[in-house]
Structure of External alternative NAD(P)H-ubiquinone oxidoreductase B4:
Amino acid sequence: MRGYTFYEGAIRAFQDRSLLSKILVIGTVSGGSAVAFSDSRPFQRIYGDSGEGEFKKKKVVVLGTGWAGTTFLKILKSNSFEVQVVSPRNYFAFTPLLPSVTNGTVEARSIVEPIRNIVRKKGMDIQFKEAECYKIDAEKKQIYCRTTEDRTCGGKEEFALDYDILVIAMGAQANTFNTPGVVEHAHFLKEVEHAQRIRRSVIDCFERASLPNLSDEERKKILHFVVVGGGPTGVEFAAALHDFVIDDLSKLYPSLKEFTRITLLEAGDHILNMFDKRITASAEEKFKRDGIDLKTGSMVVKLSDKEISTKDRATGQISSIPYGMVVWSTGIGTRPVIMDFMKQIGQANRRVLATDEWLRVEGCESVYALGDCATINQRKVMEDISAIFSKADKNNTGKLNVKDLKEVVKDICERYPQVEIYLNKKQLKNINVLLKNAEEDPKKASMEFDIEKFKKALSEVDSQMKHLPATAQVASQEGAYLANCFNRMEQCEKNPEGPLRFRGAGRHRFHPFRYKHFGQFAPLGGEEAAAQLELPFDWISVGRGSQWLWYSVYASKQISWRTRFLVISDWRRRFMFGRDSSRI
Amino acid sequence: MRGYTFYEGAIRAFQDRSLLSKILVIGTVSGGSAVAFSDSRPFQRIYGDSGEGEFKKKKVVVLGTGWAGTTFLKILKSNSFEVQVVSPRNYFAFTPLLPSVTNGTVEARSIVEPIRNIVRKKGMDIQFKEAECYKIDAEKKQIYCRTTEDRTCGGKEEFALDYDILVIAMGAQANTFNTPGVVEHAHFLKEVEHAQRIRRSVIDCFERASLPNLSDEERKKILHFVVVGGGPTGVEFAAALHDFVIDDLSKLYPSLKEFTRITLLEAGDHILNMFDKRITASAEEKFKRDGIDLKTGSMVVKLSDKEISTKDRATGQISSIPYGMVVWSTGIGTRPVIMDFMKQIGQANRRVLATDEWLRVEGCESVYALGDCATINQRKVMEDISAIFSKADKNNTGKLNVKDLKEVVKDICERYPQVEIYLNKKQLKNINVLLKNAEEDPKKASMEFDIEKFKKALSEVDSQMKHLPATAQVASQEGAYLANCFNRMEQCEKNPEGPLRFRGAGRHRFHPFRYKHFGQFAPLGGEEAAAQLELPFDWISVGRGSQWLWYSVYASKQISWRTRFLVISDWRRRFMFGRDSSRI
């Protein structure tokens, strides 16, 4: 057994660190998902022709049991729907722990929870079908499904389902950028099976390198592990692999330690480029200390069964290195069924499904898309500028005064969140100040604005529009938001709570979706992690404290008490006995 | 969480059961493997030509990392050998818990321990190669190995190893009795992967039966689970599956409970026929109560992808039943490499490798075989009767008197254990009484015996020879025995401790292998088990108490503290949260 236990370690890390302890408590208590807002229109079809009050139970089909789909199901309370869930996985997986599964710090079983278990206790009309949807027909409002290939019970089964409302939360697949050989020879790290396969593969490499009759050259090749992509997943995996080699494998295969090498390839100039520069620098420094070979500015152009070929971005030079195993983690690509669906609805040129701020798929009625398979196409202020002006100019004077503006400013900021971001960025108090600043001579600024002045003042706000990252945090908040909309459908039908419709009459039924970023982690191995948190202030930290914060936040975010218990047991077991290297 | 915890349950089961508590303590403290004896000749080759004292480090190759091989490695202490271990599994698996893995009561990872971990701490010259041996060449003293098919790292690798001593402990494979379709369509339960596959397959069947567009008939077919073989493994698996359905799956798939059926097919008249009749009756009664469909006297003649065809032994009638999944557990068959080796050494007509009482393969020098791939061919008294007589008749008088007999009786009983069993069975005090009884008129019995009288008296003792069962207990004791022989090689070379050689000069170097049966368990599901233990008295029990005894014995027998910790955690987790049904 190791020298000190998990709990002792935790206690040490928190001694004399009261801030950390407090954050830990908050993280542990808060538990999960975000507060959600909501909006209208999508649900018009749900109501009968009479328009008000008469409510029919509508068929909702949810595709996917990842972060978005599962959070949606977890928070959905309304009994007004008959829900069918279709996914090739009959479980939810806590994907941020996948890198920990690749080295056995955490067991695969500890991060999954059957979807039936999650919905069972709700007493709602939710049915699950384990199948993959291979076609969506938006015209007929049908989806077509089949059982997946590797199932051992009976032959292939196909079926179709009708829907009134479709919620697409199928996630994404790994993006190979069409690099030749990647699909055939590389490992991905998006599913539980991927992580299990990587774990077996690492052991396979060590076992193979232990066989007799191999040259040192061959051993070096077999034990060369290449990670492609310096995002959080790639970095965490490289760190996890390094830990596995140092903590466990080097003891069991002592003669092979000298042959083992880990290379991290990143096309950009730095790893973890979505983090603060200080974190990037610390991570690069840590990897250097650990002997992980970090090659930035290096693009993979080809993968054969033995070699990986890279192109140096600066010099254009192409070089090839033999490898034993490659893990590919360079971002997300579109699933074929989504691609096909986008063609149907006129989004053929896009990479992911475009939705509006209420998560409704553009150009398609009664279909919602959330999580990694979708992105929110924010409405530009400039496209609606005349409509906004006329709405504010109630008396059609052609001029807006302060009073007019006061009445709509909240709606503008809610409908077009880029305005608020722009104001914050320019450190302006409110939209009036922004309009005043648009005057050439602010001192002379009148308190009335015509359309031109209005346009000029807001001309730059659209530059603040941002796409949300493809993370579990975004997907989960979107799922929670949509479920809350569904839950309060009737109530918000009667009392719409969203912003003014600038291009129509009345108000939007729900508030639009608003993402709240809590921060992110990147474990760097050796019980160190990088953390960048959005507390009331920005908080950046790299080291052991962050790793313990990571433990507590990840434990608190588990979907069930069972997985929480198992994940914590696994961590403790790792501290006590190390990681298992049995090839199962 | 469930109503009461693992520990509370344990306490309840032991309240007012002091005998059980005591046994539990013994079981937990005793920990493992048996006391071992030992013998000679095998090691003559290990010594140099000079014959005495000069010791060269000899190459020992061990094939297999199951009970026999691993126990051998664990107990081996002598530094006089250079040991190479070859096995397609780089771990030891606690196979008696495989049925518990099929339903997730225990995780696969919890019952395996890397072989490198087991040998690492010994500081001995032991190397492991993960490969399968596909040919043994006894002439050249070489074995030929290759990497197994499903490895993901690199291509196929082949190599050969020389040996001075070969220890064959490869176990056996499932025996299909050449029944058509079994290999293609049935599941086996001999390896960890088998158990994992069965678990996934059970979930697959439930998921498949949940799909729309299926008739009730089809659902019934998909959820018909057939277990072939009423031995301890088949019975325990049927019970484990029943528990899984009742405790867990019926809650998650409530509409499918009525379609689920478990059938246990046994060719003999009763299940668990190696146990006491009372246990068999209780088990059959329990299965009847549980609704497990038990069909005895029913032989499987064919398996298609949809139907299983059986023949009623009594009526000869053949009938077919549709099924969703079949688990085949009818005993053990020979691996092809062993079959091939048996042909080489003139054992072509046998089912398993024959060894003598010192575990040396007959007709082959320096090769040992133990565990399920071998059986001990006991020496018959009748074959050696003349040699025994002359050895005892030191002065060549043609008569044995009591004194002559006293000097060899211990050796006879040790070399031919059937004599002792026969005496015990007939309730005779010693061999003198047996000889006396051979007189027609016992009253007139003289105290001298000639060869004819000697033959007559011992004529029936060979009927008491028994083959050892193919169990973990036997394999483990054999492994321990052999390791102890290897450990005390030098010492016993100088001071042989075995019985007299009746057909040669001097004494055998080691005591022959003697199996000590401690008893056996058969869990019957619903927290009940059957136990038949050989304490100082025979002890039979069926029920909850036996199940708790089973828990404690199985925990105590784990190969490492890690697996012990994990198995106990798994049991506790199951009590708290039930079993997981995620399809991973």
Notes: Chain A touches chain B through 62 residues (CB under 8 Å).
